[in-house]
Amino acid sequence: MLVKRLGELLDKKVSKKTDAAVVVPVFDEKCPKIVMIKRSKGLNRSAGHIAFPGGMIEDGENEVEAALREFEEELGINPECVDVLGFLRPREVHEYRIMICPVVGMIRTLDFVPDGREVSRVLVDELRKVLKSRRITDWGPNFECAGQLVWGASSRVLDDLYLRIVRRYGSVDAFFEGI
User: Fold this and answer.
1) 93 or 28: which carries more pLDDT confidence?
2) Residue limits of the Nudix hydrolase domain (predicted)?
3) Mean pLDDT taken over the chain
4) DSSP code for 79
5) What is the span of the domain harbouring residue 93?
6) Could you give the CA distance from residue 48 to residue 141 in angstroms, rounded to a whole number?
7) Can you give the pTM of this predicted structure?
């Protein structure tokens, strides 16, 4: 049921040219989970930020290939364990002028093997709880995932999902009824 509901909300193709791609990983169980990462402090870009796993699109790759490659590099999850459902609207990482493509995927495992050079912590939280933590601030929407503040491009990705759910179902709780 979750796969069907999410699939109905998502775009079937990327709406604009992007430089990078991220996986928005959802684990389907009684209380569906979302996975984010805390980026390592030694990285050149977005060090210490809460983000979705992903990175730059390399020559010859499309958005899905790049997102799944980066997901495997950062968290050790084989691309065959991810069922791509669709896309959210591309978002800009303002400080670097990088347009990212959010690829929503259902993952079949939470057995991560994080790359310590890129990931300092894996965050797993209930999707409903994360979406319901939405707050609007002077700098835009923010959320909380596993006790960590999500802001910037990652919060705008979550906000796109939140708004699609609320527009279609009226509330986050209504979306999750019967799942």
Assistant:
1) 28
2) 17-144
3) 93
4) G
5) 2-176
6) 19
7) 0.95
Distances (CA, A) of 106 to 24, 34, 43, 82: 8, 9, 27, 6
Q: What is the DSSP letter of 18?
A: -
Q: What is the CATH number of the domain that holds 75?
A: 3.90.79.10
Determine phi and psi for 26, rounding to 5 degrees: -120, 130
pLDDT exceeds cutoff 60 at 68: yes
| The pLDDT of residue 50 | 94
- Per-residue pLDDT at 177 exceeds 80: yes
Residue 131 tokens, joined: 């979406």
Which of 84, 25, 89, 20 is closest to 52 using CA atoms?
25
Structure tokens at 144: 């909380």
pLDDT at residue 36, rounded to an integer:
98
Residue 107: how many other CB atoms lie within 10 Å: 20
Domain count, the chain: 1
pLDDT band for 46, please (50, 70, 90 cuts).
low
The span from the CA of 16 to the CA of 13, in Å, is 9
As a dihedral over the C-alpha atoms of residue 23, residue 24, residue 27, residue 33, rounded to 10 degrees, the angle is: 140
Which DSSP category does 40 fall into? P
Q: How far is CA 24 from the centre of its chain?
A: 3
**What pLDDT sits at residue 116?**
81
